[in-house]
Amino acid sequence: MSEARSRSEAPSGLVQAALARWQWILVGVLLVAACYAPFQLVPFRVFQLTMVLVYAIALLGLNLLVGHGGQISLGHGAFFAVGAYGAATMMFHWELPYPVTLPLAAVLAFVIGLALGVPATRLRGLYLALVTLAIAIFLVPLLKRFESVTGGSMGLTLAKPRPPAWTGLAEDQWLYFLALVVALAAFVVTSSLLRSRVGRALHSVRDNETAAEVMGVRLAFYKRLAFAWSAMFAGAAGCVYTWVIGFVSPDSFTVNLSITMLAGIVVGGLGSMWGPLLGGLFVMFVPSLSQDINKAAPGVIFGLLIIGVMYVAPTGLAGLAGRAAHSFDKTLRKG
């Protein structure tokens, strides 16, 4: 019986090893393509890819909170706005160099996320979703209120980072590579975090809070920490957004942004490292595609596209590869 069991488990191990090897190959190919793309595409397409990277950074944080932490947030766009306005204020009023604004905006969002994560220690499910939704709702009028700092309804216009002369890059290419470097750093940090004790604690809280507490996991601490880390990545993304757009206004950070981000990470694939990147593509291109299909009712098209994707891939787009690997594994077992 043990020999039969070892034979049945062998294909699974081979599949896992092959998948890991092909995943690294895919990462290498994507990195080469990402470095090659801005030299072959027109500036508008380069801008679109840059925004995909910006949204992917933000969705990394949301995936950490929802996919790995098992909590829910409808206010992620608010932390995105904190990073954007934090960077804009530092550049516009304090005239700080733009590289300095990235860590400061990330730390600012982290601290605010840590403070606003208090409800996460007491609430869950729909109640927590309503609290985070309230944060996103009152943010816009709050930004318009402090006109001397935020520019009010008119927003703030900023100079975009210019490429150093030695690079020989155009402005759109330079901004793209800035976003690419930040995105790569964010993916590396997230991957390391999930492999650490913090990641294991988050997974235990997500899977079974009672069992996690019995094992000594501090539920309140790790729930607040998940909110803080999630906010930090959103703040970093908001900072890069400010660099790329060169303009911030309250109307860019409405509740729709938070809802679209949540839809993006669900469609991309919760709990998957590929989910934020696929979700970034979704957030960037699907709303504009909906507008092109039907200018009268883009929201209807947007909703139908989400339903269609979730019907085909209920675990998200990243889950399609997992399902294919599972089917392949079953085929090998039968053979």
From TrEMBL:
<protein>
    <submittedName>
        <fullName>Branched-chain amino acid ABC transporter permease</fullName>
    </submittedName>
</protein>
<feature type="transmembrane region" description="Helical">
    <location>
        <begin position="21"/>
        <end position="39"/>
    </location>
</feature>
<keyword id="KW-1003">Cell membrane</keyword>
<dbReference type="InterPro" id="IPR043428">
    <property type="entry name" value="LivM-like"/>
</dbReference>
<dbReference type="InterPro" id="IPR001851">
    <property type="entry name" value="ABC_transp_permease"/>
</dbReference>
<dbReference type="Pfam" id="PF02653">
    <property type="entry name" value="BPD_transp_2"/>
</dbReference>
<keyword id="KW-0472">Membrane</keyword>
<keyword id="KW-0812">Transmembrane</keyword>
<feature type="transmembrane region" description="Helical">
    <location>
        <begin position="225"/>
        <end position="245"/>
    </location>
</feature>
<feature type="transmembrane region" description="Helical">
    <location>
        <begin position="174"/>
        <end position="194"/>
    </location>
</feature>
<feature type="transmembrane region" description="Helical">
    <location>
        <begin position="100"/>
        <end position="118"/>
    </location>
</feature>
<feature type="transmembrane region" description="Helical">
    <location>
        <begin position="257"/>
        <end position="284"/>
    </location>
</feature>
<feature type="transmembrane region" description="Helical">
    <location>
        <begin position="45"/>
        <end position="66"/>
    </location>
</feature>
<feature type="transmembrane region" description="Helical">
    <location>
        <begin position="125"/>
        <end position="143"/>
    </location>
</feature>
<keyword id="KW-1133">Transmembrane helix</keyword>
<feature type="transmembrane region" description="Helical">
    <location>
        <begin position="73"/>
        <end position="94"/>
    </location>
</feature>
<feature type="transmembrane region" description="Helical">
    <location>
        <begin position="296"/>
        <end position="313"/>
    </location>
</feature>
